[in-house]
Design a protein that fits this description.
single chain, about 500 residues, 7-stranded mixed β-sheet, outer membrane lipoprotein receptor (LolB), chain A
Amino acid sequence: MTGRYFNRRAAVFVGLIVSLSGSSALAQSNGGSSIELQRQGMEVVEAAITATGGRAAIMSANTVELLVSTEVYSLGQGVRPDADATVGDGGPITLRYLIDIAGDRHVYEQVLSDTANQPRARLVVLPDEIFVYTPARNIVQPVVDMTPLRPLTRGLPYVPATLLDATDHAASIRLLGDKTIAGTAYRVVTYADGSNQQVALYFDRQTRLLGRSEIVESHEQLGDHVVEIVYDDYRTVGALRIPHKISVYTAGTLATVSEFNDVDLAATMDAALLIYPDSANQLPALTGPVPSPEMEVTELSDGIYAIMNATAGYNLMFVDHGDHVFVIEAPISTAITRAVLQKIDETLPGKPVRYAMITHYHYDHSGGLWGFMTNGTTIVTTPGIEQFVYDVAAVPRTLDCEPPLGARPGVELVRENRTFGSGDTAVEVYDVSPNPHADELLIAYLPALKLMYVADVYNYTGQIQQNNELLLPLADKLEELGLEIERVLPTHGQEATGETFWESVRLGREGS
């Protein structure tokens, strides 16, 4: 009986094996292209590794140092939405990038000169920890979200490490096919990196070197879009071929250009770079475009409220207009807007947010637009920004699992000035253009408090500003309008008195 039992179990087991074998054969027969595309993709990547110098040569250069000059373009920070992006103030910045391939340790330093001395800031990326250290202020800031730092790090890829990373995730590699761009024929391979980001690699069919790469990302204003990295000017360094110019494009717009001044394949990484200095003061963690956990509502007067530091460094306001709410500013992200809407509902239960005013279109001040539009809120802006608002509403957002609006958002335009509400909670909105910061710029003025809400052209951190070229055109306009300013709430910083504001104006005029 026992023998018959085991024979019966054995027969079932053998039948299962036969069944699975048949299923496997069937799967390979019907879907064999998947494994074939994986093998073809691996062949392309391995050919690129050989063209770059070979796996042994890449691995022998375990710690690499790059000294780089980088131009950072001001995406979404021009004087108007259709203005060309320009290089940020001060021109190119000098960066030093150290990479320990085997240990997956990365150090990025912004330095004061091309001697790679005197670091202004240091970003340390380790497998289990990320932090920023600023020597001049002796402060350390842990990083829990790399989103704000990606424009820096993606502009400094070390191609040999990228190729090894692809082979480390060999199971995800697939050959996509062939594509010709600007006369150059490429073989295109895709893989999922360690963060599960899908990456497309374009290999020059003639040289077999990596010529470009692409990823798809989401963005508050651009929606689903492509980030493209172009690798140029390959040169021989030791036994390796290394690109010496790397350009990054966001949705087709140039974002950064990095040129390598020096490549050291035999560098060392000082262990002291990888730890917090003992004497450094630690700041709250850099969290990316998310609401501040300390977000609190402050009542400035009956029906008039401020949210200071809705996210790090950004203040906004909202006003009770009886049967609805008026909001001033929509900074950074949808997540922040939705947290703000929750705070408003907690403060003024059941009252809809009918209007949200943005001071200007700059990406950090309009990043919350989508959150308001999905709430049915009408956007208050200037005529030149109207189409920008419609464009933000229309882009696809599949990566964020956001369905389309289905209809254009409501937009109310301010030409010169307009008043919303009445009595002690009236909000007067003024176009204070022109200004070097933005062609169209709004302020909000609350007559009951003699308070001005202003973005960027005046910030207050406890010290009187001097030589602020953006402030003087605003001051001229305020005097022309005859507004009495006793309080100023800037988007960035803390509330200032009218006296402090006008003292900055006086110093600016004396210095101009």
